Amino acid sequence: MNEFEQLYANTFKGLKERAIVKGNVLQVKPDGVIVDVGTKCEGFIPLSELLENDINHLKPGDHIEVFVENLNDSDGFVKLSRQKAEGIRTWDMLENAFNTGLGVDGKITGKVKGGMTVSIGGVSAFLPGSQIDLKAIKNTDHLIGQNCTFKVININHKGSNVIVSRRVLLEEQRNILREQTLLQLKEGTVVKGVIKNLTDYGAFIDLGGIDGLLHISDMSWGRISHPGELFSIGDTVEVVVLTFNPETGKVTLGYKQKKPDPWNLGDEKYPVGKSVLGKVITTTDYGIFIELEEGLEGLIHISEIDWVEKSLKPSKYFSVGDKVEAVILKINKEDKKISLSIKQLKPNPWETVKNKFTVGQRITGKVKSFADFGAFIALDEGVDALLHISDISWLKRIKHPSDVLKKGQQIEVVVLNIEPEKERISVGLKDLTPDPWIHEIPAKYKLGDTIHGKVSNITDFGVFIELEDGIEGLIHKSEIEKKPDEKMEDLFKLGAELTARIININPAERKMYLSLKTMIG
């Protein structure tokens, strides 16, 4: 060995190219780092061979591992690399993890076709889409930048290919957690879980490696239309184990069961006659439902809303959320039903009727509304009387009450009948004057008299004639001289004047019978 070879051997004694050695940082420069690698010649790590943020974090005196690339650099330095040292260590770690099944830490860096990329100590690994999570994830953007633990499921050092799985470790963790959870689950116990999914019929809760179903019917003693009214995905909730089958792992949960059923003490807390304040939760055509407390609701039937308005539309006067005062009418704990009333909080106007009105009394009222059978007359607030169509006139044939009365018209009537318990009063208009059939008509008209009138109605069985004072008489078809094939409509016209003869008067039935036979029309 000549002198130069001896000097070279002494200078780089202990160093080998493509080996990892330990060194001490001597100086951090803008273009790289000078390192003492224990020889008479210093080493240099170019900026391109440093690890991320080495320039900002390394300082003189730090101990680091480096990879020897070239012992005789043209600048007189041993050429070193931090990246290659890290890569070799990482590959060793990956191979060991693959052989032993240990997990490795890495950072998800991006998305590629079929999966995602993961950086593990400077080595890029592939995370297949099927290995990302326990279930397929449609959008994986939120995972980019996250640090996770992975399992190496395939490695090819020559091809620099590494395939990792996150799902395998999640499954292992879930199985361990599941076994622990199964040991703790017992019917009736209270457990904590995380809302995993919401459906129309309930919520799935992760209890720790095992999912339980919280059905919507077990969420609240009250009324809810969707689980989203109470819970959101990700919420931590405390629930009661209702049923648990160790063989199938099926678990049903309850949330409302943490509180006693409010109906247990419903009849004690809400006795008949008690005034209560509730919140409108539903309006229907037949009434409104009031929530007294969670799980306890009652119905105010439309007939129990107001003494005056009998056929009001509840949604016109009440809205969901309104506060309403009412009184308990009836409670049935077995059927879980409560009947309420608003109008019972006010005096019943019909209680004063029997003391204020008497049969035969003349009173004044206002025409409120019409029906085919009569008119309703408002007497007091909440008290309406019926004026039947047959009680409007002694003599006139009235087809509809609106023919002689107007809505809002003030009229005087006579009380005919009072039934306060049934909320009924009947009145008459014709009773303001004496019945003409008792004295006037029998005195004015006699059998055989000839009368004059106008045709007021034509029927198959005869013709009605209206006399000058409003009295009607019937000419039966048997008292009309006509041919068998002749029709009444062909012989008579409405409004036509006729002369007839009285053949019968019946005051009891208020009927007068006439004849055209031997008469000239």
Give the CATH level 1 class of the largest domain. Mainly Beta
| Main sheet strand line-up | 1-2-3-5-4
Radius of gyration: 51 Å
The helix/strand class is mainly beta
- Which range best describes the helical content: under 10%, 10-25%, 25-40%, 40-55%, 55-70% or over 70%? 10-25%
For this structure, the CATH topology of the largest domain is OB fold (Dihydrolipoamide Acetyltransferase, E2P)
Number of helices: 9
The biggest sheet, with number of strands, parallel, antiparallel or mixed sense and barrel status, is: 5 strands, mixed, barrel
Tally of discrete structural domains: 6
Q: What would you note in describing this structure?
A:
By secondary structure, this protein is mainly beta. It has 6 domains: 3-85, Nucleic acid-binding proteins (OB fold (Dihydrolipoamide Acetyltransferase, E2P)); 101-170, OB fold (Dihydrolipoamide Acetyltransferase, E2P); 185-258, Beta Barrel (OB fold (Dihydrolipoamide Acetyltransferase, E2P)); 262-345, Nucleic acid-binding proteins (OB fold (Dihydrolipoamide Acetyltransferase, E2P), Beta Barrel); 349-432, Nucleic acid-binding proteins (OB fold (Dihydrolipoamide Acetyltransferase, E2P)); 440-515, OB fold (Dihydrolipoamide Acetyltransferase, E2P), CATH 2.40.50.140. 14% of the residues lie in helices and 41% in strands. The chain has 9 helices and 30 strands. A 5-stranded mixed beta barrel has the order 1-2-3-5-4. Strands 8-7-6-9-10 form a 5-stranded antiparallel β-sheet. A 5-stranded mixed barrel has the order 11-12-13-15-14. A hairpin with a 3-residue loop joins strand 11 (190-198) and strand 12 (202-206). Residues 1-12 have low confidence and may be disordered.
